[in-house]
Write a structure and sequence with these properties.
The chain is of the alpha/beta class and 212 residues long. The chain has helices spanning 17-27, 36-45, 49-60, 66-78, 94-103, 116-124, 166-180, 182-188, 204-211, and strands at residues 6-10, 32-35, 85-88, 108-113, 126-128, 135-137, 193-197. The chain binds adenosine monophosphate (AMP). Adenosine monophosphate (AMP) binds next to α2 and α3.
Length: 212
């Protein structure tokens, strides 16, 4: 039996945390991907009380208050304490990191590094298929046929994330610098950080090397 892995992904917006998580899933298919941003977006789409509380913060690129976020993460992790998971987008500040350490163990923290100019293009160029969620980028990966999703074949109007705008991006980068970056030292002090250059997708062997 494979040992359980609890992995945290750190990195600025656009570092590729979602893509990296999909790559990890190819190597460890049973691992559970928890993205706090995805959970908030899903709640927003379904207009749940949680989504409505989170909306104004997300629209401005600010952090949703810790009480709300911590509680949501605890509920997600409570159900899967004996399974492997990769956390994408959480923790985002020291308070969240300290809270997390009271509810679970962590095996590794993977820090994704990418050149600043590429980050900006990844965020501002990002769009996705509203039908299947496949992500594209106007600078890097366009659909093979204009207006048609490569993955699900839908003829569809692609969507941009409402917070992938210049104005909001500045706030998100600020939040990363001020609140999230200190977590690098927090986890380095615990000997947990592995830093990788994620300018390009990694080979399966490299992903295995990073997570095992
Ligand atoms: P993401 O998809 O990770 O870029 O997250 C999108 C937005 O969701 C962020 O800009 C925040 O408003 C909110 N969010 C996601 N994760 C967290 C978190 N750990 N703490 C607070 N807010 C978060």
């Amino acid at each position: 039996m494979q040992e359980t892995k609890h992995i945290i992904l750190l990195g600025p917006p656009g570092a590729g945390k979602g893509t990296f998580s999909s790559q990890v899933k190819e190597v460890l298919p049973d691992i559970i991907h928890i993205s706090t941003g995805d959970i908030f977006r899903e709640n927003l789409k379904n207009e749940t009380p949680l989504g409505l509380k989170a909306k104004s913060y997300m629209d401005e690129g600010k952090l949703v208050p810790d009480e709300i976020t911590n509680d949501m993460v605890k509920k997600s992790l409570d159900d899967i304490s004996d399974k492997s998971w990769v956390l994408d987008g959480y923790p985002r500040n020291l308070n969240q990191a300290e809270f997390l350490s009271t509810i679970t163990s962590i095996d590794s923290v993977i820090l994704l590094s990418v050149d600043h100019k590429i980050l900006i293009k990844r965020i501002l160029g990002r769009f996705s298929c509203p039908n299947c969620g496949e992500i594209y980028n106007k600078y890097f990966i366009k659909p093979k046929k204009k207006g048609i999703c490569d993955k699900c074949n839908s003829k569809i109007e692609f969507k941009q994330r409402p917070d992938d705008t210049k104005e909001t991006l500045n706030n998100r980068l600020d939040v990363y610098e001020k609140n999230t970056k200190p977590l690098i030292d927090f986890y380095k002090d615990q000997g947990l950080v592995k830093e990788i250059d994620y300018t390009n997708k990694l080979s399966e062997d490299k992903i295995k090397e990073v997570i095992f």
